[in-house]
Each structure stands twice: as C-alpha cells, then as structure tokens.
Amino acid sequence: MEHRFQLPDLGEDAPDKAEVSFWYVQEGEEVEEGQDLVEMITDKAAFTVPSPLKGAVKQILIQEGDIARVGQTMAVIEA
Amino acid sequence: MQQATDRALEVIGPERCGYRQALETQQRLRRRCAASGGRENFLMLLEHPPVITIGRSGLAGEVLADRKTLRERGVEVLETNRGGRVTFHGPGQLVAYPIVDLTARGRDLHRYLRELEGWLLRLLESYGIGAGLNPPYTGVWVGGRKIASIGIAVRHWVAYHGAALNVTTDLEFFRLIVPCGLPGVRVTSMQEVLGRPPDLAEVARRAARLFCEDFGFADVPQSRQSERVRAG
Asked: What pLDDT score was predicted for residue B230?
C-alpha cells in the first residue's frame, strides 16, 4: 500500500509552508515508524519530521532547497 | 497560563560552557524530555566563549571577517542545526536553551517563538527597558537595535536551541558578521541601554523565574548544574 507522506500542520501561528533542509533518507531506503525522514526549515525554526509508518521510500517529490506547503505530498512510502 | 500538573522544569546554570558541549547536552536532555512523554523539561542558561554560529538558513558569506581576524579575536565558527541565519555568542551574553515539549503547548512552531519573545520582553521590562518586536523579523529590539536573537530546532515536538540576550556583550564582535542575515542591522546590549552593566547571574535568575511563570511551571530551585552539563 502506498502512503503519501505530507508536510504536517506546523500550527496556527506557523507559516503554511517550509523549505526542505535535507532528507535523512534516500529513495529505495527502508524506514521504521518514527524514524527521522526530513528536516524542514521556516524562518527561525528547524523541524525534523519522522516517518508515520514502516515501509520503503519509493519516491521523494520535494527536493532539498525546495518549498513544500502544509498538506503537500513530499514523498511516497510503500508500506 | 497552563497548569503544571505533572510537567516539571529543571533549571541548569547559569554557567560558562562551550558551544559544542552545550549542544551535546541539549541533545541528551531533548531525548530525556521526549522519553518522559514531555514531563521532564529543562532550561539551560549559559554563557559561551566567543563563537559565530551559522544556522540552517545562514550563508557562509554572512561571516564577514577573514580567518586571520577570527583567529586573532579568538572566535570559532561553527555550523549548527538551529533555524535562522548567522549569529554571535560570547561573554556577557545570556544564552537560554529551553528544552520543552511543544505537544503540551499545542504543537505550534511559531506560537512558541512568539512566547519566547514575550518572555524576553518581560525580562527586559523588569530592568525598566522598554523593548519591542519588529515583525516580520523574529527577536527583541530596543529603539531599532536588536538586543536578543531567537533560533530554535524541534524534533519529536521537543524544542531545543533558543535565545541569546546581550547583557554586557562586546558589541564589536557583531561587526564580524551580518547578524541574522539583516545587512545594516544594529545590535545593542542591556549595558548599552541602561548605561551600567547588569549582573549576568541575576539576569539569569530573573529569566528562570519569569520562564516558569510564562510557561506554566512551578518555580523550582536551581539544579546542581555543573554535573548536569558536564555529565554525558
């Protein structure tokens, strides 16, 4: 089953988008639930987002240095 | 204000501590906070030896001084994993690293930044300093000059890194960088504003007390901090 990994809501006062600082993982890599997937940055905060499930990273859709919006699919994880 | 029923805050410091060592301690305490389900929170109050840190959004070009000058001034340059750009830490600056669970605070990244600003405003107000904000820029300002900088990191919804307040900092050091990536920005210190040097340890004590009030923790005695910072 494919899971669409989306940028989570960062809070009401937070911006609705963030920049990909770097991916901890590469396409094809197996990940555990709770394992760090990606670090995002807003103006003054760096934020690490964990994987919501165990699976394999099938595809990374937002590259390092690019911007993702809250709710946007950033990667596809094959569970 | 939230009720601190089972959440506790341990205050560590004030004490002098190198940047790298402080970061290791922060990581260790961050893991403890996460493992405790957010019950164990910490406030590290430190003074760093001279160091320029480049945050995640910082550019190497925002360090203006050449290597020779940096060596002569005894300033180390380090990349670090907080949000924000380039800043300076050094003697006479109160560095505050709250390691707190943001789940209990509504998981709002930027609300927490605003809460840190509010805390610093109250701290300065307790010294009769009328400071303010300068949106959209994060941080605390007095008369158009920046007196405190903020940059955080968050992992598993536990925040670390934090704020740096110039108490008696030698402001000449800021000429070595573009502070916070804002060209032409001017910085100030509590000493410059007050015309006298406040005691850093007293500023730290007030900071701890006000932090407990603002963030809803019962006031706690200072921990035996030296062994905490150095252990691990």
From this structure: 44
